[in-house]
Each structure stands twice: as structure tokens, then as C-alpha cells.
């Protein structure tokens, strides 16, 4: 079968499959997508916005996903929710295509089998693929970078590095790829007893591209400050990991880990066994992906979000180790049937998991409160919000400005004392939250989601707040001078 025909089939198959999963719900599968598509819509009207005016207490002043948001712009010419979902399908399919082409370049047999196994390997990985985020592009870039390093395409590698910086803050992974590739070249040279096997021009091309991307950047020099805290923030402020979203935490139990990544652990173990038994580590590609898989597997044990990188890299390693095996036909048919069954199970569970997540969070049910704020407050007036509530607020209301979003690291870096006060309020420890919100954060209105019941109860019992609007999953409070809590002064039924 011709390569172009294979590429066409894999692309169409991926588009159809991801469409089924993505459109299993009419809503976005994860909260950050509301921000990304709404911001892309803003870019459509103002190509180079100077500063991010919607956050008042944050070092975030630049767009760290500038190129990704540019790529999202064509998807804003339809309904924004529809456009966001289509973009997710498109970029996830692009990642599978990059995986397919990489295996083709490595002369892997049974590429269709490994492509299906990639998607079937983890519901957690498939769930993350369905989010409106830039990481499918990042994985595609890493695969393309490896192929460029193999072919010594220095200029293209530098250009790709430049684009990576403008696209996603995980661009340091490209530096890891280049350095590891050079290390593996040195090891290969020692094994083959050859001198100068390492081509350091590859690392040089990557470093040059990354540096140019940070300097020749629409948001230079502010972008350097933002990158620093985005990349290093969770190491500088480890105490924030508990409030920075579950994705930064380990899997809560061994059972959860095995359920989310058991197939990946199995394929990794088989690969390591095969490499050690047959001394396959002498091969550059196998050694490179072995080390890389080990790194990302360890990172996944520390933080579950790294499964988005571990899954495709481990499956590439598995393909390198097992594709040369001459399988018995009956055994091959059995394994293929098992993988197809696994794909069906992973797909069904992922769709169910997406539905449960959307129904639990109900981000779409914040529109009424966001609309009330837009119609009843002054333009750019500050609304006090919890950082995870920002994306749907921004999606439905760009009339107001807010405290912080995306990551609490940006607030901590902006003002550690203010950050401490912020979390004292949302943890229910502040004695007089109304005074702190009005005088320290310059806000007169508070937006809450009803799903956070403890926080809602805390505010309803606090003095100087009045309920101004309620929705199916939202609440707007105004700070007033009169003493008394909403539960004391208003007939509240939340």
C-alpha cells in the first residue's frame, strides 16, 4: 500500500474515532478549553494584545501559547464550543499521524497494530487527548524532532524549536531530547569503538532555536518572567501542588495507577526484558526510547499529567522491541483481537468518564452568573474568583477582570503575602473575608461555583455579603456595608 494512501487512511480513521469520543458530550471535556478558545477569539479581533488585562494579581502578562492560539483562530469562525471540540479532534489526529510517520521512519512492521495500541493503552491518555490543550502538538513536535535529528536536518530542527517555544511551555523537553540523543550517540560510539559519533550540532540547533524563540517573541522580555514561573513554579513553591489541580498530583492509589496505566507498565516491562535479554540496548533508537520511557514513567509516578508523554513514548519503545518478532499467525490474530477489544473497553470507559466529569463540574452552568456580572458591573471592574473558575468566566464574560487563573503559581510569584490571604479565604480561615476582598483585592463582587459546597457555605455565613444572582452551578455575591450574613438577612435556598 502506498505511503500517501496509508497516511490518508490513518488520518481519516483518527478523525472519525476522536470525533466519536469528543462529541459524546455537547460540552467541553475539561475546563481550560473555555479559556483557550475564547482567547483565540480575542486574537481574531486583536492580533497582538499587549498584556493580559483580565488578571489583576498575576505575573502572567504574556501569551505562552501564542502559536497554539493562532492555530485555534480558524476554529473560532463557527460556534466556539463546536470549534474547540473540532480543534481537539484535529490536533489529536495530527499526533497519531506523527506517531505513524515516526514508526514508518524506524522501519517498524505492523504500524496499524501499534497505532491502535497507542489509543487503547490508557483511558487517562485518551481523556487528555480530548482536552482543548496544546500538548498533542507538543508530542507531534517531539516525534518530528527525533526524525529531523536522525536525518541531521539542522535548520529545520532549529525552526521547529523556535515554533515549539511559541506554542507550549513544555519546550524544554525538546532540549532533553537533543541532549539525550547526543548522550546515546556517545554510548553508541563507545560500543562501536568509533570516535566523534556525537553530533553536537543537533543540540546546538535546538538550543539556538529555543533561545531565538524566547527573544524574537511578540512578548519579549516579559515572556521570560512568565516562562520561569510556569516551568519552575512548582519546584519553587511546592506547597502549591495541593491546590494546583489534580493533574500535578500522583495517582491516588496503586489500583488507580494500574487502571490508568497498567497496559503501559506491561508494555514497558516487556520492552525492558527484551532489550536486556537480546542486548538490544546497543541499538541507538532502542536505547534512546528506553531511557526516555524510563524518565517519563518516573515522572508519571510523581505527577499523573506526564502520562500524556509516557504513553506514546513507551509504545514507540514497545514497537521497536517487538515488531521484528515473527509471530505465529494464530497467536498474532489473538493478540490483535485482544487489542481491538481493549480499544473498545478504553473508549467506552473514557466516554463514561468524560460524561461523569462534565456532569460533576458543570462549567457550562456558569453562564447566567457571568452574564449578570457583565450586565450589572462596570467594565474592567474586578470580580473575586477561585483560580479554577476563571476559564468559563472568561469564556462567558470578558467585560470584567479577575484575580487569577491558569495556575496559582502566578499569584504566588506576584505577591506571596497576597497569595497567602487569597488561600486563607478559600480555605475558610480568614476571619473577615469581606474586608480582605474589598481592601486587598479591590473587588466588590465574588463569583463562586456551587459544586464547591464548603466554600459556598463559608461565604453564606460570613458578614457583609449579599446574594445578587444564582444559577444552576454558580453564585454571585456583593460586598455591602451592612452587618449580617446572607443566611441571616436573605431567604437563601441554594
Please specify the SSE layout and strand pairing.
Layout: H1 3-22, H2 32-45, H3 66-72, H4 80-105, H5 111-120, H6 123-129, H7 135-150, H8 154-167, H9 172-192, H10 200-215, H11 222-236, H12 254-277, H13 284-302, H14 307-322, H15 329-361, H16 367-376, E1 382-384, H17 390-396, E2 401-402, H18 409-414, H19 416-426, H20 433-440, E3 445-448, H21 453-460, E4 465-470, E5 475-479, H22 486-489
Parallel strand pairs: 1-2, 1-3
Antiparallel strand pairs: 3-5, 4-5
Helix pairs in contact: 1-4, 2-3, 2-4, 2-17, 3-8, 4-5, 4-7, 5-14, 5-15, 6-15, 7-8, 7-9, 8-10, 9-10, 9-13, 12-13, 12-14, 13-14, 19-20
Structural features:
63% helix; mainly alpha; Rossmann fold; 5 strands
Described by the principal axes of the CA atoms, the overall outline is globular
Distance between the termini: 62 Å
Gyration radius (Cα, Å) is: 25 Å
Total DSSP E strands: 5
Largest sheet: 5 strands, mixed
**Top-tier CATH class of the domain at 363-489:** Alpha Beta
Q: Write down the CATH topology of the domain at 363-489.
A: Rossmann fold
Fraction in helix:
55-70%
Strand order of the largest sheet: 2-1-3-5-4
| pLDDT < 50 stretches | none
SS-based class = mainly alpha
Could you report the average pLDDT, rounded to the nearest whole number?
Answer: 88
How would you characterize the overall build of this protein?
This protein is 63% helix and 4% strand. It has helices at residues 3-22, 32-45, 66-72, 80-105, 111-120, 123-129, 135-150, 154-167, 172-192, 200-215, 222-236, 254-277, 284-302, 307-322, 329-361, 367-376, 390-396, 409-414, 416-426, 433-440, 453-460, 486-489, and strands at residues 382-384, 401-402, 445-448, 465-470, 475-479. Among the domains are: 134-236; 363-489, Rossmann fold.
